[in-house]
């Protein structure tokens, strides 16, 4: 399964790059996708990343998961991208995986995709998780949606994505190998 991690200007670096690193350690085909029209994207702490793909060049028929890192104004910039919003809705309609961390679960909530699901997010963004039962757990998996709280939960978020794609044993080995409690 191919995983696309979407980057917009102002993305949270820890949340995006931790997912990419952990998934690659697990042997998962993960690519970063810029929604800015250019491959170099600056994070919220001005760490510049050169993405693998531009949104316009990404083949979503090959992808099984969309990942949305949080950060500000990264989350707002992801939400503004009409093409990405359309792909998120399409993935949800097909039961494909959606994963969002920090403020980014609000993108899913505003699209009405969290109804009847349990979700978590950065404190203060719960009001945008329309229809969801909210929790303060580090990570929640509910149906086809994985959500997480913020930078400090990024490794647990990434490991849950690995678990969803490759299973418990692979996630457990990675967790032990990286000395994650």
Description:
It is a single chain. With 181 residues, the chain is of the alpha/beta class. It has one domain (2-177): Class I glutamine amidotransferase (GATase) domain (Rossmann fold). Helix content is 34%, strand content 24%. The protein contains six helices and eleven strands. The chain has helices at 13-25, 74-80, 82-93, 105-110, 154-166, 168-177; strands at residues 2-7, 29-34, 40-42, 48-50, 53-54, 63-68, 97-101, 118-119, 133-134, 139-142, 145-148. The strands form three sheets. It has a seven-stranded mixed β-sheet, sandwiched between helices. A two-stranded antiparallel ribbon has the order 3-4. Strands 8-9 form a two-stranded parallel sheet. α1 runs parallel beside α5 (154-166). The radius of gyration is 15 Å and the shape is globular.
